[in-house]
Amino acid sequence: MAVKKCVRLECKECKEINYLTKKNQKANPDKLELKKFCNRCRKVTSHTETKKK
């Protein structure tokens, strides 16, 4: 069975956490990076995975 982990995606430009998603920890051990729309920047920017606080 795949190990799913909940991750938070943070905008690289404004540092705001905009998205929550799941990823397969065994298949993708490195940090997730996606291009998504940021409401604060009002454009598509790169979002990276962050740690839970």
Can you lay out the helices and strands and say which pair or pack?
Elements: E1 4-11, E2 17-24, E3 33-38, E4 43-50
Antiparallel strand pairs: 1-2, 1-4, 3-4
Q: What report would you give on this structure?
A:
The protein is mostly beta strands. Helices cover 0% and strands 57% of the residues. The chain has a four-stranded antiparallel sheet, with no helix packed on it. The termini are far apart.
Distance between the termini: 27 Å
Strand order of the largest sheet: 2-1-4-3
The main sheet comes to: 4 strands, antiparallel
Order of helices and strands: EEEE
Whole-number average pLDDT? 91
- Measured as a percent range, the helix fraction is under 10%
Q: Tell me the strand percentage band.
A: over 45%
